[in-house]
Request: fold
Amino acid sequence: MALALGKYESQFFAYVQMRQRQTIGTGELVRALGVTAQQERELLSRLARRNLIARVRRGLYLVPPRLPAGGKWAPGEFLALTALMEDQRGSYQICGPSAFHRYGWTNQIPNRLYAYNNRLSGERTIGSVAMTLIKLNDSRLGETEAVNSPDGIEAVYASRLRSLVDAVYDWSRFNALPQAYDWIRAELARDPEAAREIVRIALRYGNVSTLRRIGRLLETQGTAEPLLRKLQRRLASSRALIPWVPTLPKRGTVNRRWGVVINHEQ
Reply:
Protein backbone atom coordinates (compact mmCIF):
# COMPACT_ATOMS: atom_id res chain seq x y z
CA MET A 1 0.00 0.00 0.00
CA ALA A 2 1.37 3.39 -1.01
CA LEU A 3 2.20 5.77 1.80
CA ALA A 4 -0.42 8.52 1.99
CA LEU A 5 1.25 11.92 2.02
CA GLY A 6 -0.18 15.39 1.89
CA LYS A 7 1.09 18.21 -0.26
CA TYR A 8 3.68 19.51 2.17
CA GLU A 9 4.80 16.02 3.20
CA SER A 10 5.43 15.13 -0.46
CA GLN A 11 7.32 18.37 -1.01
CA PHE A 12 9.36 17.74 2.13
CA PHE A 13 10.55 14.28 1.05
CA ALA A 14 11.21 15.46 -2.50
CA TYR A 15 13.37 18.25 -1.09
CA VAL A 16 15.43 16.16 1.34
CA GLN A 17 15.96 13.37 -1.18
CA MET A 18 17.02 15.80 -3.90
CA ARG A 19 19.49 17.43 -1.50
CA GLN A 20 20.50 14.04 -0.02
CA ARG A 21 19.99 15.43 3.45
CA GLN A 22 20.31 13.34 6.58
CA THR A 23 19.17 16.03 8.99
CA ILE A 24 16.84 18.99 8.68
CA GLY A 25 16.60 21.99 10.97
CA THR A 26 13.76 24.39 11.62
CA GLY A 27 13.86 27.44 9.39
CA GLU A 28 15.15 25.60 6.35
CA LEU A 29 11.74 24.58 5.05
CA VAL A 30 10.40 28.12 5.33
CA ARG A 31 12.81 29.07 2.58
CA ALA A 32 12.81 25.81 0.64
CA LEU A 33 9.06 25.12 0.51
CA GLY A 34 7.72 28.63 0.91
CA VAL A 35 5.76 27.79 4.06
CA THR A 36 5.29 29.84 7.19
CA ALA A 37 7.20 29.07 10.40
CA GLN A 38 3.98 27.74 11.94
CA GLN A 39 3.33 25.46 8.97
CA GLU A 40 6.91 24.19 9.18
CA ARG A 41 6.57 23.37 12.89
CA GLU A 42 3.30 21.54 12.30
CA LEU A 43 4.77 19.61 9.35
CA LEU A 44 7.82 18.44 11.27
CA SER A 45 5.76 17.53 14.33
CA ARG A 46 3.31 15.59 12.19
CA LEU A 47 6.07 13.65 10.43
CA ALA A 48 7.73 12.84 13.75
CA ARG A 49 4.45 11.61 15.27
CA ARG A 50 3.99 9.33 12.28
CA ASN A 51 7.53 7.98 12.72
CA LEU A 52 8.56 9.19 9.29
CA ILE A 53 11.38 11.31 10.73
CA ALA A 54 13.07 11.26 14.16
CA ARG A 55 13.61 14.19 16.50
CA VAL A 56 17.23 14.62 17.61
CA ARG A 57 16.46 17.68 19.70
CA ARG A 58 14.08 20.59 19.48
CA GLY A 59 14.55 22.05 16.02
CA LEU A 60 16.64 19.22 14.54
CA TYR A 61 15.36 16.03 12.90
CA LEU A 62 16.84 12.94 11.26
CA VAL A 63 15.30 12.00 7.93
CA PRO A 64 15.36 8.66 6.10
CA PRO A 65 17.31 8.31 2.84
CA ARG A 66 14.10 7.16 1.16
CA LEU A 67 10.44 6.84 2.04
CA PRO A 68 9.93 3.88 4.39
CA ALA A 69 8.17 1.04 2.63
CA GLY A 70 6.16 0.05 5.70
CA GLY A 71 5.01 3.55 6.48
CA LYS A 72 7.33 3.98 9.49
CA TRP A 73 11.03 4.65 9.90
CA ALA A 74 13.45 4.48 12.80
CA PRO A 75 17.12 5.47 12.64
CA GLY A 76 19.76 2.93 13.57
CA GLU A 77 21.52 3.41 16.88
CA PHE A 78 24.81 4.48 15.30
CA LEU A 79 23.12 7.05 13.08
CA ALA A 80 21.16 8.45 16.02
CA LEU A 81 24.22 8.75 18.26
CA THR A 82 26.42 10.18 15.50
CA ALA A 83 23.82 12.81 14.58
CA LEU A 84 23.49 13.87 18.21
CA MET A 85 27.23 14.15 18.75
CA GLU A 86 27.82 15.98 15.47
CA ASP A 87 25.13 18.48 16.44
CA GLN A 88 26.88 18.99 19.80
CA ARG A 89 30.33 19.10 18.15
CA GLY A 90 31.37 16.44 20.61
CA SER A 91 33.38 13.24 20.76
CA TYR A 92 32.09 9.91 22.00
CA GLN A 93 32.98 6.27 22.45
CA ILE A 94 30.46 3.47 22.88
CA CYS A 95 31.11 1.76 26.19
CA GLY A 96 29.70 -0.42 28.96
CA PRO A 97 27.13 -3.11 28.14
CA SER A 98 27.15 -2.10 24.46
CA ALA A 99 30.90 -2.77 24.26
CA PHE A 100 30.73 -5.86 26.48
CA HIS A 101 28.26 -7.44 24.06
CA ARG A 102 30.29 -6.44 21.01
CA TYR A 103 33.42 -8.11 22.38
CA GLY A 104 31.54 -11.30 23.18
CA TRP A 105 31.76 -11.23 26.97
CA THR A 106 28.02 -11.39 27.40
CA ASN A 107 25.18 -12.73 25.28
CA GLN A 108 22.74 -10.24 26.75
CA ILE A 109 21.80 -7.62 24.17
CA PRO A 110 21.50 -4.23 25.91
CA ASN A 111 18.21 -2.42 25.39
CA ARG A 112 19.98 0.91 25.17
CA LEU A 113 23.21 2.32 23.79
CA TYR A 114 25.85 3.43 26.31
CA ALA A 115 28.34 6.12 25.35
CA TYR A 116 31.02 8.13 27.08
CA ASN A 117 31.19 11.62 25.58
CA ASN A 118 32.37 15.15 26.32
CA ARG A 119 29.08 17.01 25.91
CA LEU A 120 25.96 15.39 27.38
CA SER A 121 24.89 13.39 30.40
CA GLY A 122 21.63 11.54 31.02
CA GLU A 123 19.05 9.55 29.12
CA ARG A 124 18.09 10.42 25.54
CA THR A 125 15.78 8.81 23.01
CA ILE A 126 15.92 9.41 19.27
CA GLY A 127 13.25 7.52 17.39
CA SER A 128 13.34 4.07 18.96
CA VAL A 129 16.97 4.38 20.07
CA ALA A 130 17.39 4.75 23.84
CA MET A 131 20.77 6.03 25.02
CA THR A 132 22.62 6.47 28.27
CA LEU A 133 25.09 9.30 27.82
CA ILE A 134 27.95 9.65 30.30
CA LYS A 135 29.82 12.96 30.19
CA LEU A 136 33.58 12.82 30.77
CA ASN A 137 36.42 15.29 30.56
CA ASP A 138 38.34 15.15 27.30
CA SER A 139 41.27 13.62 29.17
CA ARG A 140 39.21 10.53 30.02
CA LEU A 141 38.24 9.81 26.42
CA GLY A 142 40.57 7.61 24.44
CA GLU A 143 41.68 4.08 23.55
CA THR A 144 39.08 3.62 20.83
CA GLU A 145 38.50 1.74 17.61
CA ALA A 146 36.27 2.67 14.70
CA VAL A 147 33.80 0.16 13.27
CA ASN A 148 31.94 0.50 9.98
CA SER A 149 28.30 -0.43 10.52
CA PRO A 150 26.17 -2.10 7.82
CA ASP A 151 24.38 1.20 7.14
CA GLY A 152 27.65 2.97 6.40
CA ILE A 153 28.05 4.81 9.71
CA GLU A 154 31.46 4.80 11.36
CA ALA A 155 30.85 3.99 15.01
CA VAL A 156 33.52 4.62 17.66
CA TYR A 157 33.86 2.02 20.43
CA ALA A 158 36.07 1.92 23.48
CA SER A 159 38.80 -0.57 22.63
CA ARG A 160 38.67 -4.12 23.90
CA LEU A 161 41.16 -3.56 26.72
CA ARG A 162 39.82 -0.12 27.61
CA SER A 163 36.41 -1.74 28.00
CA LEU A 164 37.86 -4.25 30.45
CA VAL A 165 39.31 -1.43 32.55
CA ASP A 166 35.99 0.46 32.31
CA ALA A 167 34.17 -2.63 33.59
CA VAL A 168 36.21 -2.43 36.80
CA TYR A 169 36.27 1.37 37.05
CA ASP A 170 32.58 1.92 36.32
CA TRP A 171 31.33 -1.28 37.93
CA SER A 172 28.35 0.33 39.67
CA ARG A 173 27.01 1.94 36.50
CA PHE A 174 27.54 -1.15 34.37
CA ASN A 175 26.85 -3.82 37.03
CA ALA A 176 30.07 -5.45 35.85
CA LEU A 177 31.69 -6.98 38.94
CA PRO A 178 32.57 -9.74 39.58
CA GLN A 179 31.96 -10.84 35.97
CA ALA A 180 34.67 -8.50 34.68
CA TYR A 181 37.32 -10.42 36.60
CA ASP A 182 36.51 -13.51 34.56
CA TRP A 183 36.64 -11.46 31.34
CA ILE A 184 40.12 -10.22 32.24
CA ARG A 185 41.28 -13.72 33.19
CA ALA A 186 40.06 -15.03 29.83
CA GLU A 187 41.80 -12.19 27.99
CA LEU A 188 45.08 -12.94 29.75
CA ALA A 189 44.74 -16.64 28.96
CA ARG A 190 44.19 -15.73 25.32
CA ASP A 191 47.00 -13.20 25.21
CA PRO A 192 49.39 -12.97 28.18
CA GLU A 193 50.91 -9.80 26.68
CA ALA A 194 47.58 -8.05 27.30
CA ALA A 195 48.66 -7.51 30.91
CA ARG A 196 51.08 -4.79 29.84
CA GLU A 197 48.37 -2.86 28.00
CA ILE A 198 45.84 -3.34 30.79
CA VAL A 199 48.33 -1.80 33.23
CA ARG A 200 49.01 1.12 30.90
CA ILE A 201 45.32 1.81 30.36
CA ALA A 202 44.47 1.40 34.05
CA LEU A 203 47.18 3.89 35.01
CA ARG A 204 45.83 6.43 32.55
CA TYR A 205 42.08 6.00 32.99
CA GLY A 206 41.59 4.23 36.31
CA ASN A 207 41.22 5.47 39.87
CA VAL A 208 42.72 4.12 43.10
CA SER A 209 40.08 1.42 43.54
CA THR A 210 40.52 0.31 39.94
CA LEU A 211 44.29 0.03 40.35
CA ARG A 212 43.93 -1.97 43.55
CA ARG A 213 41.47 -4.45 42.09
CA ILE A 214 43.32 -4.87 38.81
CA GLY A 215 46.64 -5.16 40.65
CA ARG A 216 45.36 -7.95 42.85
CA LEU A 217 43.80 -9.75 39.89
CA LEU A 218 46.94 -9.52 37.76
CA GLU A 219 49.03 -10.78 40.66
CA THR A 220 46.87 -13.92 40.95
CA GLN A 221 47.35 -14.48 37.21
CA GLY A 222 51.12 -14.51 37.43
CA THR A 223 51.77 -11.12 35.87
CA ALA A 224 55.42 -10.05 35.92
CA GLU A 225 56.47 -8.19 39.05
CA PRO A 226 57.75 -5.06 37.22
CA LEU A 227 54.23 -4.47 35.85
CA LEU A 228 52.67 -4.95 39.27
CA ARG A 229 55.12 -2.46 40.77
CA LYS A 230 54.02 0.12 38.17
CA LEU A 231 50.53 -0.08 39.59
CA GLN A 232 51.70 -0.16 43.20
CA ARG A 233 53.85 2.95 42.83
CA ARG A 234 50.74 4.93 41.93
CA LEU A 235 49.03 3.94 45.19
CA ALA A 236 49.62 6.02 48.30
CA SER A 237 50.08 4.18 51.55
CA SER A 238 46.69 3.67 53.21
CA ARG A 239 45.08 1.48 55.86
CA ALA A 240 41.67 1.79 54.18
CA LEU A 241 40.39 -1.42 52.60
CA ILE A 242 38.06 -1.92 49.66
CA PRO A 243 35.97 -5.02 48.92
CA TRP A 244 36.92 -7.27 46.03
CA VAL A 245 33.23 -7.42 45.09
CA PRO A 246 31.66 -4.07 46.05
CA THR A 247 28.09 -5.37 46.19
CA LEU A 248 28.85 -7.96 48.88
CA PRO A 249 29.54 -7.45 52.61
CA LYS A 250 33.15 -6.47 53.32
CA ARG A 251 34.06 -9.66 55.15
CA GLY A 252 36.88 -12.01 54.22
CA THR A 253 40.64 -12.35 54.09
CA VAL A 254 42.70 -9.22 53.54
CA ASN A 255 45.28 -8.74 50.80
CA ARG A 256 47.54 -6.14 52.40
CA ARG A 257 49.58 -5.39 49.32
CA TRP A 258 46.57 -4.10 47.43
CA GLY A 259 44.33 -3.16 50.34
CA VAL A 260 41.54 -5.46 49.18
CA VAL A 261 39.18 -7.57 51.28
CA ILE A 262 38.65 -10.84 49.40
CA ASN A 263 34.93 -11.24 50.11
CA HIS A 264 34.20 -13.43 47.10
CA GLU A 265 36.31 -15.55 44.81
CA GLN A 266 35.53 -17.20 41.50
